[in-house]
């Protein structure tokens, strides 16, 4: 198996596609992600995060992407009579409710901050903090009246993101990571930030980190962050930690959040299902990641709705068996030579 084979089977396009377009997003960054809300991050590094923060902003504010947030920000908790689950009442994505949601997210910007830590393979975590001093936040609006006075939400992201982005910015031009890898890092970071923001909004609305509701009765479990991911992309998206060519990922830990070897999608499965049936990972073409960093994509979503973006699709699948150790690689192509199976 040579690199030439991988290219000809359309497999390497998950890493370095021939026609990658640069990020051309220039939308303003939401106040939630403004510099004052970040801890332990110098201004030059903050500016290096801009592509991720612009994308995260579009994920919460773009007209059609706002639909999930309208229910998250305004829905009340009810008990589903058939399942007994606590579910948010669905709120329609109308202009009036979107405006109210915009106000809730603008207010939330006063109560959320972001930081970094070594999280050992985990990409992020979020919790509610009691005030360190008698901090006064003025009068909270009705959306956050249940959170205790002075309480704020803290989102802690993996320090690996920062280390990678700092190192990239300090390298000579020739040694810099490719634009494709940078976009995968920014995509992963944006997705992680928005996932955690979904928790932060929930914690601050209800003044509690327990009893997270089901956002929708169709959700697999009561997990607001995954609910958002699954709604936004119709799957879950992860960095691929397995090097297809058998190289090591340098000094990075095995559970690195840096998507050096592309990204994969899996189905959102109930607890225990992976152990019973195994997991099917599908490689995500880099052009699918690339499109999110283009203004024209967001204009199209504005015109045609969110469904104009198809679920990430490719012909390359890897199946992890129920023993969690064995793998089978599958390529959807009839004339594929046998060698592909022994990658
Ligand atoms: Zn979560």
In a few lines, what is going on in this structure?
With 343 residues, the protein is of the alpha+beta class.
Features:
single chain, 343 residues, alpha+beta, five-stranded antiparallel beta sheet, three-stranded mixed beta sheet, globular, disordered C terminus, binds zinc ion
Overview of this protein structure:
- This protein has one domain (3-342).
- The protein is built from 11 helices and 10 strands.
- The longest helix has 28 residues, at 179-206.
- The strands form 3 sheets. Strands 6-7-8-9-10 form a 5-stranded antiparallel beta sheet. A 3-stranded mixed beta sheet has the order 3-5-4. A two-stranded antiparallel sheet has the order 1-2.
- A hairpin with a 6-residue loop joins strand 9 and strand 10 (327-331).
- The protein has helices at residues 3-8, 43-48, 50-61, 66-74, 95-108, 159-170, 179-206, 224-233, 273-277, 286-291, 295-304; strands spanning 77-79, 86-88, 112-117, 124-129, 152-158, 236-239, 263-266, 279-284, 316-320, 327-331.
- Mean pLDDT is 85; it is low at 244-249 and 338-343.
- With 343 residues, it is α+β, with helices and mostly antiparallel strands.
- Zinc ion binds at residues 195, 199, 223, 225-226.
Task: Please outline the helices and strands.
Blueprint: H1 3-8, H2 43-48, H3 50-61, H4 66-74, E1 77-79, E2 86-88, H5 95-108, E3 112-117, E4 124-129, E5 152-158, H6 159-170, H7 179-206, H8 224-233, E6 236-239, E7 263-266, H9 273-277, E8 279-284, H10 286-291, H11 295-304, E9 316-320, E10 327-331
Parallel strand pairs: 3-5
Antiparallel strand pairs: 1-2, 4-5, 6-7, 7-8, 8-9, 9-10
Helix pairs in contact: 3-7, 4-5, 7-8
Bound molecules: zinc ion.
